[in-house]
Every structure is written in C-alpha cells, then in structure tokens.
Amino acid sequence: MTPHVEPDPQAGAAVKAADRAHVFHSWSAQGLIDPLAVAGAEGSYFWDYDGNRYLDFTSGLVYTNIGYQHPRVVEAIQEQAGRLATFAPAFAVDVRSEAARLIAERTPGDLDKIFFTNGGAEAVENAVRMARLHTGRAKVLSAYRSYHGATSTAINLTGDPRRWPSDTGSAGVVHFWAPFLYRSPFYSSTQAEESARALQHLEDTIAFEGPQTVAAIVLETIPGTAGIMTPPPGYLAGVREICDRYGIVFVLDEVMAGFGRTGAWFAAEHYGVVPDLMTFAKGVNSGYVPLGGVAISAEIAATFDKRPYPGGLTYSGHPLACAAAVATIRVMEDEKVVEHAAHIGETVLGPGLRELAERHPSVGEVRGLGAFWALDLVRDRETREPLVPYNASGEAAAPMAAFGAACKKNGLWPFINMNRTHAVPACNITEAEAKEGLAALDAALTVADEHTV
Q1: Burial class of 234 by CB neighbour count within 10 A (0 to 12, 13 to 18, 19+)
Q2: Which of 41, 230, 344, 449 is exposed most, by the fewest CB atoms within 10 A?
Q3: CA–CA gap between residue 276 and residue 248 (Å, rounded)
C-alpha cells in the first residue's frame, strides 16, 4: 500500500502551523509537543505529507478495530448523512434502534437495554450514576492501574497519574489493588494465589468501607492503557460473587477491550462473567464517528421504568454514529473480524512477541490475547525494575523515547505508556502486516536493550 497522494511538504507545514496556532491538545504541555501532520490513512497504515508511511500498532487510540477508511462504513455514514443527518434523542429513529439491537445481541446475559453516549468517559459517568441511583449508595470502588476516562467521575475512578491533578479525594471513590502477578502487591507466586489474595483484599476493603455504603465496583475487564493485565482464572467470577453477596452493582468497562479486540465480542466472554452494567465505545464503530454507551441489565433498567432517569446528552444515539456502528458490526460479522483477531493473536502476535522476549533482555513479560498485547520493558529481568521509573518524564523517560523513535524510523507507530509498549493493531490486520510490525519491534528493542544491566 502506498500513499494516495504525492508528497506535499508545503501542505504539511501549513497543517502543522494551523494546528500549533489554534489546536489545544489533550494530556500535553502545549509548547513542548510536535504533532505529526497526517495526510491520509487506509487499513492498518497512515502516512504524512512527506510520504512517510507507518504501520499503526496503536489503532488510533485502540479504536480502529476494522482499520481506517473501511469502504462499507464510509458509505454507510454518507448514506445516512443524505437521508437523516441528525435527530434529537427523545425520538425513535431506525438506525438508532438497529444499532442498539445489534449491540444488545452481542452483550452477555440480559444486558439488553442500551443507553448511548458520545464516548467511553460519558459511558462510565452514566454507569456510575445508574448504580448509585439503583442502590441508594454513594461509594464506588475501582482499581489502581486503570483508566476510565477524563470527565469528573471517570477521572476519579482512574487509577493512574492522570487522576492526580483533578482528584479532590471527595468524589466517593475508593481504590484497591487488582491482581497483577508480574508486579504483585500480594507477594503471590502463582496465578491462583494472586486471584485468592486479590479477592480477599477486595473483600477486606469493602468490609472497612462499609458494604452498605458501596454502590458499585468498576473494573476494566482487561485493563488497557494501564498494561493489558489479563485477570487470573476465577478473579472476575469472585468479584461477581462478592457483588451479589453485598448488593453491589458490578460494572465492567469494555471501552477498550470490547468489540473484537480480545478475540471475542466482549472480553467478559473469556471469563464467563455477566456484569450488571457494561460500558463500551471505541470499537463499536471503529471510532469513525464518536459513540459510546452503557449496556444495562433488566434489573437496573427496571429501576427507571416509572422513575425518570436523570441523565442525557444532546447527541445520544446520533444517527451518523449509529449508522457507523451498524455498518461496523455487520462488517465484523461478515468478514469474521472477531475470529480473525483471535487467530492472529494465537498464531502470529502472541508467538511472535514471546519469541522477541526470548532474544531481548529488555522484555520482562509478554501478556495479552487477540489483538491486545503488552510488552513490559525492564532494566533488569531478575529484579523486574522497569526500563523507566513510574510516571517518568524528561530525561528519566529517555530510554522509552529512544525506543519509540527507533520504531518510527522502522515504519512502525508504537503505543507507549510508561515502561510498556502495546501491540494493539487493527483487529483485521493481515498476517503479513503483523509480521512486519514484529520485525520493526525486533529492531527497536535492540535500542531498549542498550539500557539493560
């Protein structure tokens, strides 16, 4: 695949100048960033105005699950724009109803009512609101090493440093440690020990907070940005049992892990667990038009049969976004994207990443499934000291910056967070493209190896 336009550095410079003059970027010190000016994208690739092409191992922000510019989704958006570009959320609109039906068919258990939002953070906000209103309780428990969004409640639920500047400590959120054997807070030596000790820790936290005060436990089924730590067998089932015992609403955040990313429609399928509420966004329509939502159990939905739900959004279930969702889900079904993600993870990405770990001392652990993988990079495999310190910046983060630059030099756009790089390509990436990405990682890891002891 080659760029569809001739290189035009002058046009790229104009795009960059306008960006720097007027666009305020998220999570950034505005004067210290240098955004790449993107000229186009297709499938698993994008390119700049200088003609440099990159294999995108980030899927945008882990959302282009069917790649860029899929013609069937683009056509569906165009057709919907010509037919009914927008309409208020209080009305029944065919494409909105169809999107809800298709999503509900794929969610586990009786999560058959869909509340639409514009993205994942709003989905989490509304899930927590529903849980609090359903239970009449205020507190919500969430895990360290998590990310749930940047709006007010979602950022307080988040368990990474992005929370700190916005955390007043008064939002009714209590954090706990979820299982993570490689960096276990429980000194476990096996997955079974880690699961049991993490569940005991959670139950102790609930006991000391007061079970009657806890409305919900919110967990990413598989944490995404925080490190793709697949939960040990029995953990999520144990959380489900604890929630049932204390009348706590169990919320699974599938914003990143949902819609084929793990080789299943939803990651909860891997663990045989049905939550009370499930949040989604990103892959629901491959990010082509902003869309998210909450899938709601029958019991919680019934709470609002006669009692108005005090929440809503102007663009809830926007027709263009829903048209993109309908087309995306049908593409995933017709082209067996979910099955392909499982296959590529089992046969190419998983084995390939583990083979890299055998040869590169900077790789401490490989974990993941489907098209959802992380490499935990370390200075010392024996001590598991991270390649860069927690929340490092500036010179302290230089080893990861050098690794990232090496990836880009080899035509790979990497997903980097702290001491990790994630392999999260489009779920329909071809075997040849996946192997191309692994080769680029192989070359870049030699740079990370230079910083090991």
Answers
A1: middle
A2: 449
A3: 9
